Amino acid sequence: MASYVIFALGLMILLEGLVFALAPSFLEEFLKALQHMSPKARQQFGLTACALGVCLLAISAMLA
User: Fold this and answer.
1) How many whole angstroms separate alpha carbon 64 and alpha carbon 51?
2) Alpha carbon separation from 42 to 10, 31, 37, 49, 61 (Å, rounded)
3) Alpha helices, DSSP H only, in 1-64?
4) Distance of CA 20 to the CA centre of its chain
5) pTM of the model as a whole
6) d(Cα 5, Cα 47) in Å, to the nearest integer?
7) In this structure, what are the phi and psi dihedrals at residue 49, rounded to the nearest 5 degrees?
8) What confidence tens digit (pLDDT) does each residue in 7-39 have?
9) Is 64 helix (H, G, I), strand (E, B) or coil?
């Protein structure tokens, strides 16, 4: 179980690092867009991202 958690964290850090390395200007624009969003819209964006993540984890568990 711990190995899956470590693997998932490593994959997450790898993907975030790729965004910084391969698309730094996109990241800057995305952060600027987030600043212009209302707190409610940012909250909705975060909840949607969480729901998507849960769905992907459920699909992954069904395929395993």
Assistant:
1) 20
2) 25, 11, 6, 10, 29
3) 2-22, 24-36, 39-63
4) 13
5) 0.69
6) 21
7) -65, -40
8) 989 999 999 999 999 999 998 999 999 999 999
9) coil
